[in-house]
Amino acid sequence: MRRRLGLVRPSILMAAALLFWVAFAPLVAATEDSRYCPVCGAPSPAGNRFCLKEGSPVPPIDAARRTPGFIRSPGTYSSVEIQQVMQRVSQSVVRIRARTTTTYRYPVTWWKDDEAEYYGRAMLGRIQTSELDVRLAGSGFVVSAEGEICTNAHVASPNGMQADLTIETLDGRTFPARVLGVDVACDLALLKVDGPGIPPLAWGDSTAVRVGQETWSIGNPLDIGLSVARGTISGLAGMRIGLNQVESFIHSDAHIAPGNSGGPLVDVLGSVLGVIDMGFMEEKGQGYAIPSQMARLVIDRLRRNGSYPRGFVGLHVRPVDSESMKKFTLKRSEGAVVQAVLPGSPAASAGFRPGDVVYGINGRHASSTYLLQEAISSVGPAAPIRLMVDRQGTELVLPVTTGRRPDTPRVDPLEELEGYLRLWFEEEPNL
User: Is the separation of the CB atoms in 360 and 366 below 8 Å?
Assistant: First the structure.
């Protein structure tokens, strides 16, 4: 008897499951209003009363107890949801190909004879020219329904040169692109394509990012095609590494390789938290992105004006720390301490001194060097501002009129080589 019951038990279970499904099928019918199951976190049709994965009853949601402005915790997203978000974001990320033809001038040197080489006498030389066809690849992402693309300045304009740009989408479409604006100071550029609509990405809030938060870098590393790398936020202290004139990087350990430049760093919702700018190939976990707070401001300026003329006062500042407090005997523990004043600059004319602590502008506090720098940059040149200064415990307000931030000086390689070899080069006239 027991053996017979054991044989019919699967049939009984199948019949019970069939009756259950017939009875409750209306409750789990799919609708366009999709929600998420509070039990397992997977997508679930609206009105479903049972977890599709575990079969347990779903607790009712009391609308009266719903907190206004509720934000779902990133840890509640399932792997399926994250994959769907990354797939959606990838539709907006493009590969950027840049091609430029440049004439290079370089010196060729040699010793006159063995005696000159032995005694280290002056060398002979001439300057040669060469035509070089350079082809590079980077990444970018669409930021508007009009086909505007955000990327790095060194991708859109390699070495400051004009380039022929082409973008490729994930589905294989190719479009020519033109440059709307470039801001070399923070390494950002805005491009435009006139092809069919590519879905844009939404900007996230980089000021709300926390250390340890999961992020994803998306781009075209090593020109092998679209790639997604997962990592966590490692640093948020407005990191400065000396790469750009204006910088305040987000540090992520998501793997970044050449070709990722210009791609987005996104959160679990697919919102852009930063624009990937650089990474160290020799060191793992060393990826740096321009925060969305800065990138969004610069892109808006490039959209309106095609450039971002930044304000400049001529101060070399650093955050107040124990070393600077001891060196200058500071009385204030927050702000930006003046290390040096550029001669002939607006700050020198206004009477700034090394050891002054700048802690505000136009009546508003600016506790970090980045906030101070961005506040001065945003007003543009020829703008009157008032800087709040602490000078050995005495609070002052110094008026100053901004100038235009100078471009990064570029050293002529020929002049540098002449100084190294202790010689000079002269171009021969065309005969």
Answer: yes
| DSSP string for residues in 281-342 | SSSTT-EEEEEHHHHHHHHHHHHHHSS---EE--EEEEE--HHHHHHHT-S-SSSEEEEEE-
pTM of the model: 0.71
Q: Out of 44, 92, 139, 154, pick the active-site residue.
A: 154
As averages over each run of 10 residues, the pLDDT of the chain (431 residues) reads 42 52 42 59 72 75 63 80 92 93 71 75 69 85 95 90 90 92 92 88 92 92 87 74 75 86 94 88 75 92 91 89 87 89 92 93 85 86 94 92 78 62 59 45
Length, in residues, of the chain: 431
Q: Mark whether 316 is an active-site residue.
A: no
Catalytic residue from among 92, 139, 157, 187: 187
Question: What are the two backbone dihedrals, phi and then psi, of residue 103, each rounded to the nearest 5 degrees?
Answer: -95, 115
Catalytic, out of 139, 157, 252, 261: 261
- Is 187 an active-site residue? yes
